[in-house]
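Technical annex, item 7. During the second reporting period the consortium partners agreed on a shared format for inverse folding records so that results from different sites could be compared directly. Each record opens with the tokenized structure and is followed by the designed sequence. A conforming record, contributed by the partner at site C, is shown below for reference.
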């Protein structure tokens, strides 16, 4: 994977035309992975929830999960706001918003309007039982999986045979994923070659300071905030990162945290986390615990205000924080989720000109890798923490499982 990513960068840099032509390799691999995500999530959630005989435990785990997600994701937003105010990466750019291309802002504003509360809630309900698997929308798949799980729970003596079928199906889908992941280096090379070939290394320009600040802030959040959470739960974050190194490289190459979702679920089970907890926490986290996206939204919004000389006082930034806490929850299944959620936030906090989104187009692809990696790590840590709270695995078991080879 590392060789493939480096090769893709070199091809895109030295032979940009050839790099752009390699885009289908990256797109094809991501499509192959996404093809398998919906059935894997369905089997994981259905088997996990339907196997849980104690419905009180289900409610307890769900409540703990949502509470954890809200606290940690809000903390990510706060850290992003603090760092961007300290670094001031947009100060001195003096961009005149009237001179920017308004079509970029308008195109994302239209997508953002589709993320209103009513539209968001209605979108969770698929048009048919099977259309959730056609569109691949994780929230729709979760809804169908939840209903299916509760229906199976009520089958009485017939529940176990149905659960056995679901488990065998899960093994088949994971087997297909093992075949697909063998093509990961080709996909990573194609994706990186296209990115560098299309945008070029020079396209980073004066926006490099924002990128550096974002990467540093994400690193701070992962190693300090998540590191302390991990230590408090009895395991080493660094050892966990080594344990999921294959998934991290996959996300780095493809710029999508969804590509590593099946592997993350498999490895969390290997640590001793129960299928029911993993099946509930990880898929839900991909909609409600996007730490990297939250940091990006906070930093990007204030950066645009600084770049366009838009004054934001403390009250404005608190309003921005509150809006972002809500708008970030609708990012799942939306193409260009980072941009769309940012547009949704700016549309509600109108002091920052929406046209200024055009400033971020050139570097968004380079920042999306960091967003995706941070999201992946955050959801992995969340699943282990909830499992520890539920007494499913001890610190000693975690340490032993983290030190052995991956399952």
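Designed sequence (site C submission):
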């Amino acid at each position: 994977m590392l060789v493939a990513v480096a090769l893709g960068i070199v091809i895109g840099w030295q032979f940009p035309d050839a790099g752009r032509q390699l885009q289908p390799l990256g797109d094809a691999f991501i499509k192959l992975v996404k093809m398998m995500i919906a059935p894997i999530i369905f089997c994981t959630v259905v088997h996990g929830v339907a196997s849980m005989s104690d419905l009180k435990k289900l409610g307890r785990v769900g409540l703990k999960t949502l509470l954890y997600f809200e606290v940690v994701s809000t903390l990510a937003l706060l850290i992003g706001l603090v760092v961007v105010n300290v670094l001031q990466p947009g100060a001195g750019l003096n961009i005149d918003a009237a001179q920017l291309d308004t079509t970029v802002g308008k195109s994302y504003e239209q997508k953002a309007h589709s993320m209103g509360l009513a539209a968001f809630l209605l979108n969770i309900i698929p048009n048919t039982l099977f259309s959730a698997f056609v569109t691949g929308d994780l929230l729709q798949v979760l809804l169908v999986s939840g209903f299916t799980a509760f229906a199976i729970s009520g089958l009485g003596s017939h529940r176990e045979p149905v659960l056995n079928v679901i488990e065998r199906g899960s093994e088949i889908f994971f087997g297909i994923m093992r075949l697909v992941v063998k093509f990961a280096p080709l996909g990573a090379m194609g994706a990186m070659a296209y990115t560098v070939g299309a945008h070029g290394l020079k396209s980073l320009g004066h926006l490099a300071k924002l990128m550096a600040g974002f990467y540093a802030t994400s690193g701070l959040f992962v190693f300090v905030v998540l590191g302390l959470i991990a230590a408090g739960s009895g395991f080493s974050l660094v050892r966990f990162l080594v344990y999921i190194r294959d998934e991290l490289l996959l996300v780095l190459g493809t710029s999508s945290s969804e590509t590593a979702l099946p592997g993350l679920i498999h490895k969390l089970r290997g640590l001793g986390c129960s299928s029911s907890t993993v099946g509930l926490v990880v898929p839900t986290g991909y909609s409600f615990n996007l730490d990297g996206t939250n940091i990006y939204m906070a930093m990007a919004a204030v950066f645009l205000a600084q770049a366009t000389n838009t004054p934001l006082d403390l009250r404005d930034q608190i309003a921005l924080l509150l809006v972002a806490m809500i708008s970030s929850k609708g990012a799942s299944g939306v193409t260009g989720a980072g941009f769309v959620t940012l547009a949704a936030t700016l549309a509600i906090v109108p002091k920052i000109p929406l046209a200024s989104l055009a400033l971020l187009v050139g570097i968004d692809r380079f920042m999306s890798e960091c967003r995706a990696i941070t999201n992946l790590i955050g959801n992995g840590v969340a699943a282990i923490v909830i499992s520890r709270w539920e007494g499913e695995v001890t610190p000693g078991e975690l340490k032993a499982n983290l030190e052995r080879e991956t399952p």
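The chain has one domain: 2-403. DSSP finds 20 helices and no strands in the chain. All partners now use this format for quarterly exchanges.
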